[in-house]
Amino acid sequence: MRYLILSDIHANIEALEAVLAAAPREQFDRVVVLGDIVGYGADPNAVVERVRSLNPDAIIRGNHDKVAAGVESAEGFNQAARHAALWTLTSLTEENKDYLTSLPLGPLVVEDEIEICHGSPDDEDEYIFEHVDAVEALRAQAEPVCFFGHTHVAVVYWLSAAAFDIILPSPNDAETHLQIQTDRRYLINPGSIGQPRDGDPRAAYATYDSEAHELVLYRVPYNVAGAQEKITSAGLPEGLARRLGLGK
Ligand code: ZN
Q: What is the DSSP letter of 83?
């Protein structure tokens, strides 16, 4: 199976379209979405509709989807995130809000050996930044390969009987190829499409061939200025526009 893995799109249609132009739906057997379809960006309806048009084979909710659809309160969000979530709640059509409300909570087993979650396999709201948390998640995941999002940082953690390691994509490369070893467990973050935070403003996504066991992490440039302008014209916090240019 050839997988296209999309995460943390955050209502950024410019970034999503750039990814889909580089990785057209028809080139993949399956599309999976790791949550946070909306929040922060200025195009929640266009993004939800574009995601629906892809007919994802597996899709789970993220913390921003819950708040933007009114499933959960914005308590615990910082000021900019809360502002954007409430703006999204009032901007979404009823149909798109219903779609977000219907998204299941992860983790979700996609096929034998592959599962997806938003934050961690144990908790959709948990951020995995520390090695100790990655090891805990690698032990908790039900399948040997788990894709996660939430941190907006592209990274691969792996664990074998004797070792643990972390692999970061090379900063200036457009592609990072990795052969998945069947005697290890992997916890993989494709990075964020719509609001990267690893210092690289290019949109991030991944593909995985589950037969060849080949993972590729990609970065693709997109019209950042266009997305920033829309954030500003919508009256959303200026910091949300600024960070897109920095990739932080
Ligand atoms: Zn997110």
A: H
Average per-residue pLDDT in the chain?
A: 97
CA of 162 to the centre of ligand 1 (A): 32
> Separation of 10 CA from ligand 1 center, angstroms?
7
The DSSP secondary-structure symbol of 55 reads -
User: Is the pLDDT confidence value at 171 over 90?
Assistant: no
- Domain interval for residue 227: 2-246
Share of the chain above pLDDT 70, in %: 100
Which amino acid does the sequence have at 110?
V
Report the predicted TM-score, pTM, of the whole model to 2 decimal places: 0.97
Number of domains the chain contains: 1
Q: Is residue 110 within 8 Å of 146, Cβ to Cβ? A: no
**In this structure, what CATH number is given to the domain that contains residue 14?**
3.60.21.10
pLDDT in tens, 201-213: 999 999 999 999 9
**Helix (H, G, I), strand (E, B), or coil: what is residue 71?**
coil
Q: Tell me how far apart the alpha carbons of residues 177 and 206 are, in angstroms, rounded to a whole number.
A: 10
How is the chain split among helix, strand and coil, in percent rounded to 5? 30, 20, 45
Residue 182 CA to residue 234 CA, distance in Å, equals 47
CA of 15 to the centre of ligand 1 (A): 14
Mean pLDDT of 151-157: 98
pLDDT digits (tens, 9 = 90+) for 59-68: 999 999 999 9
For residue 180, the CA-to-ligand 1 centroid distance in Å is 26
What are residue 101's phi and psi, to 5 degrees? -65, -30
Which residues make beta-bridge pairs with 184? Answer: none
Q: How far is the CA of 30 from the centre of ligand 1 (A)?
A: 22
